[in-house]
Amino acid sequence: MFGIEDHLTRRDRGCLDGHFLVAMPGMTDERFERTVVFVCAHSENGAMGFILNRPQPLSFEELVQNLDLDGRLAPAGRPALKIGMSECARDFPIQLGGPLDSGRGFVLHSDDYMSQSTMPVNDELCLTATVDILRAIKDGCGPRRGIMLLGYAGWAPGQLENEIFANAWLSCPASDDIVFDTDHSSKYDRVLASMGISPAMLSTEAGHA
Q: Of 33, 99, 133, 160, which one is least surrounded by beta carbons within 10 A?
């Protein structure tokens, strides 16, 4: 399976780029039960994306206090040093993006922030996976909209297509508003509602929206 950078830099994108995947009741992998996944890249070499409704208890402030963003990391055995934090950064959402590479953080964000390591996902969304964007968010000069995702979801060539054929997923075009919405508890039902589907209507026999 290609790495995340390989997926995002390839031009032979597939039909599921920029789509939501909604886990069906027949989903056998409990890690994806009732999940909404945003597909960042899809090609003949596989697919990758991020779960959008698995919030984490870790706050952005707690995260950056454990990183040496300003060269002021506390010595071992002593409390982390307090660092300046913009008001918007205090509420910056952190979510579990998927089971792969869960120790790595990615920021999916609006296209008003760009760095040398920023990779466009589509015409409106970008992905940055370096500490530069964390500094920018902390200082209040990061993207207008964004979420931090720990880990990602990935599929080998043909795997996602086979799972959809087996009715594990329902797919539909993604909405930026739902991507960045922090009402995680209702996100699954609202994506279905956007397709005109009630959860009670779902069965393992459903297909594409």
A: 33
